[in-house]
Every structure is written in structure tokens, then in C-alpha cells.
Amino acid sequence: MSALSLSTSSIATLRADALVIGVAKGAKGPVVALGGEAVDKAFGGKLATTLEALGASGSEGEVTKLPAPASGVKAPVVLAVGLGDVPRKNDTYDHEALRRAAGAASRALAGTKKAGFALPLADTGSVAAVAEGALLGAYAFTAYRGTEGKNGKDGKGAKDGKNGGNAPLDEVVLLGGRSRDADHKAAVHRATELVTEVHRARDLINTPSNGLNPAVFAEQAQALGKELGLKVEVWDEKALTKGGFGGILGVGQGSQNPPRLVRVAYKHSKAKKTVALVGKGITYDSGGISLKPPGSNETMKCDMSGAAAVLATVAAAARLDLRVNVTGWLALAENMPSGTAMRPGDVLTMYSGKTVEVLNTDAEGRLVLADALTRACEESPDALLDVATLTGAMVVALGNRTFGVMGNDDAFRTRVHETATEVGEASWPMPLPSDLRKGMDSTVADLANMGERAGSGLVAGVFLKEFVSEGTPWAHLDIAGPAFHESVPQGYTHKGGTGVGVRTLVRLLEHAADGDL
Question: Minimal CA–CA distance to 306: which of 174, 483, 74?
Fold first, then answer.
């Protein structure tokens, strides 16, 4: 995790390896944003002209590196990052634009020890956005970057064992903020604790399935519990059988790595609200007997992104000492084909007592979630949310960057969507049409795990609703699109696991702690 600090030093006098300034897109070319005046002066007032000559326009996320002048600043490198259009008079830059710009700059400075960020900080929200973006961009998953080993020239491998590119930016210094301002200090503290947990989620998602099966995931949750003082309970396969968790057991019965259900609880002595979070944790999804075709299974280590987000969110609540009780439920299983795997046509008796006919073993996420939702409702939370990479249909509907939000309470669904927008995570409210329930009727069970093909992302939500107790405000976040980024990096988003959902959930918990949920 990169170090983050506020400094009152001048950008001209800061000793660093690089300086980051903002450039906006003006009507007649790039415009140096507030914060970069001293650098522009060092360039003789011609920085914008120089950038334009290098092809820069100020477009959002655009990065241009250039050597610093011999005098006027102490750093050897200047990095200009695009902020998009120049704000209208008296307007400030959008916080998400600042967050993405800081992330793009931070990514571009991988391998750099120290950088000063002199982006426009008009308010505390701007400080928070730049801090978060810079830290989110300073990420690399290196756990499996191995040594040369037997293939190395000396048979011992590389000295550092990390042969996969430059390390993330080591130190971020925010210039223009007020180091003694309580709100600015709080924003930096929050950003550090929050991004620590987003990185945890990213690490879990990026870990290959042979390094993260349900038992290992549960062990990591237990270790985190000891570190942060969380109460952690684990149901192994024997306890799941005794408890009647037919959905989780059914999905996991085809794997040699048995399933787990994990409860991770954070309690605050002054809390007035309790929020329950449920995360889908399929540590590898082959599709089971309904096997996925080639091209659809290569990234299925990420099918536990919901559980990763939930674990990280509970940990963030503890780090931030939020005045709200939070219970996280991790429904962990590996969905594999074998002689013991559940088959299309099998009927499972769920924890709720309802029976489900399995028509497609690749619609397994809703089965593990159903058991966890029922168990979570037994504790009568004030609000309940589940997070899951649940359906390809949601990706078709909303694309790779936006998650769908469904629920049994329109006002609560809207609140989740608005909160996601507030923190810069793209989402869209989706309906749960009651007429879709008819398509899940079964001739042999209470319902089937499949329904109409049209609107199948909504069908999955309608299925989950069957397992939420009456009167419990509930929202379902289908993060199948943005959970795992396979395209080129952008802004603060790297290739691989994104940790999407953590920032939205943490902000919702903050609202709950303030009595505003």
C-alpha cells in the first residue's frame, strides 16, 4: 500500500521524483488546471503550448510525461493528466474525474518512489477523490510473480522474486490540501483505510483458484478477524449438512474442495442499525455438469468477487470505526463436474425448507446465495444487501462497467444506486417484474432455478427474492460486468479484479451509521 500524506510545501520546492498536474480541455487547446501554476511558470508560461505540441488535448485520462525545466521545480519529471472539459464559471471539477485522473497518473508512475500531486482541490470532496484515485491506481498483484527457479541461469531465480514489471508508486504527496485541517486529514485517513480493503478484495479476486478454495478463503477471513477484532464463524461441510444448507452443499458436492459458509461480524457499542451483507463466493465456476464452453471459463476464478467485496467491506467498517453493526455472510463453494456433482433435474432442499429443481447447474450462484440470505434474515437486520457476479444477462444489458441494482423496496434500491453514483461506481436500477416468477414454476419442486430466458438477469433477482423475509429491505447487486476488468487499464482500474462494490457498500454503512439509511 502506498504511503499517503498532505503537504503544504510548494510544488516548486517539493523534492520528489515526479510532479502531477492537471490539464483541462479548453476551447482553443489544453489549459493548465489550478495547482499547476508554478510548473507553468517554470516552463516560461508555455506549458500548455508545449503539451499541445506533444499531442495533449486535456481529454479525460490522457497522460503526458515530459522532463521538467532545469530550474523552477525540484522534481525531474512532470506528468500532465487530462481532466476533461474546463468547468463552467464557478464550477469545480467532478470528483470522479479527479479520482480517475489521479488513478491514471498513479498507474503511469509505477516504478517511481515519490510523486507530488498538484491537482485542483476545491473542497474536501476533491481531496478525498484525489487521495482515493492515487491509491487505487497504485496497485499490482505480484503474489504469483515467481522466481526463475529451475529455469534460471543460476538455478536460484531472481533476487526479488517479482519478475512482473514495476512496483506501484511508493509515496503519494497531496499538494494544495491543508495538513492541519481536520476534514482534509479525515479524508486522507478514510481513503487509506478504504483503499486498503479495496486492494484486499482485488487480491482475493486475482488469486487463482488453486490458491483460493473455500477452505482457504474461510481461513483468510479467520485471520482477518483476529487482526481486526471481528467475530468469525465457519460452517464446514459437516455443519452445513447438520444445518440443512442444501443450496450450498448441492453446488459444492462435485468438488474435492468442500464448501463453507462464513459469518464475519463487526459490532460497535454505539450502533443503532444493523446491516447484513451476503456475498457469492464461487471460488471457481466450471458450470458443473452444465459445463461452460471454452472462452467462458478462463476468468471464472473471479466468481467469488461478491464474497471478496463483502469481506473487505466488513473490514473497512472496522478500520473506520463506523457506528453501525455489520454482518457479512460469505457463501463459498467450488462448482465442478464429477461423479458426485449435482445434475440437471436434481431437487435440493434449501435452508429455508423450500425445494428447488436444478434445471441448470451453471445457475449455481443463486443457490448458495439463497441459503445465506435466509440465514442472514434470521437475525432481523435493518437492511440486507447481496453482491454477486450472478448473470451474463446483466453484462449484456448494462455492459462491462455498470452493475445492476434490484430490490424489494424501490426507495432502498434508489438509495443504493444514488450511493454508488456518489462514490463513482457506475450502477443502474433494474426492476423485478412479478410476472417472471411464473416461469420458475416446477412440476416436482416449489420452484426451479431457471425461468424465462428473456430478462434472465431479472429472473435471478426474482429467484433470490423468494428467500428474503417479508419486511426486510433488500437490494441485490449483480456485479458480473465490472467485477473483472479484461480490457486495457483505465483511470484507477487495472486489469483483473476491480473490487467493485466495496466503495458503495462502505458509503452505505456510513449513511447507516449517521442514521440516514
Answer: 483
| pLDDT, average across residues 87-95 | 84
Lowest mean pLDDT among 10-14, 361-365, 369-373, 408-412: 10-14
Helix (H, G, I), strand (E, B) or coil at 326: strand
Is residue 121 within 8 A of residue 179, CB to CB? The reply is: no
Is residue 130 a contact partner of residue 119, using CB atoms and an 8 Å limit? yes
Q: CB of 476 within 8 A of CB of 85?
A: no
304's grid cell: 467469488
Asked whether the CA dihedral 427, 433, 439, 440 is positive or negative, the reply is positive
pTM for the full model?
0.95
The pLDDT of residue 149 is above 60: no
Summarised one tens digit per residue, pLDDT across range 23-38 is: 999 999 999 999 999 9
- Quick one: what percent of the chain has pLDDT higher than 70? 96
The whole-angstrom separation of Cα 299 and Cα 209 is: 10
Retrieve residue 13's grid coordinates: 520546492
Mean pLDDT, rounded, for 438-455: 97
What's the mean per-residue pLDDT of the chain?
Answer: 95
Cα distance from N-terminal residue to C-terminal residue, the chain: 31
Would strands 447-448 and 474-478 be described as parallel, antiparallel, or unpaired? Answer: unpaired
Its sign, for the CA torsion 314, 318, 322, 325, is: positive
Q: Which residues belong to the active site?
A: 292, 366
**Is the model's pLDDT at 88 over the cut of 90?**
no
Helices 502-513/305-319 angle, 10° precision: 40
pLDDT at 364: 98
Q: What is the DSSP string of 386-415?
A: EEE---HHHHHHH-SS-EEEEES-HHHHHH
| C-alpha span between 270 and 356 (Å, rounded) | 41
Rounded alpha-carbon distances, angstroms, from residue 252 to 236, 311, 355: 11, 20, 17
Query: Which residue in this structure is represented by grid cell 464429477?
Result: 338
- Edge-to-edge, what's the strand order for the sheet holding 447-448? 347-349, 355-357, 447-448
pLDDT at 19 exceeding the cut of 90 = yes
CA distance 465 to 167: 44
In DSSP terms, 403 is beta-bridged to 427
| The three cell numbers locating residue 495 | 486489469
What is the secondary structure of 146-213 as a DSSP string?
---GGGSSSSS--SSS--SSPPPP-EEEEESS-TT-HHHHHHHHHHHHHHHHHHHHHHHHHS-GGG--
A 10 A CB-CB count for 505 gives 29
- Across 395-422, average pLDDT: 98
pLDDT at 156 over 50: no
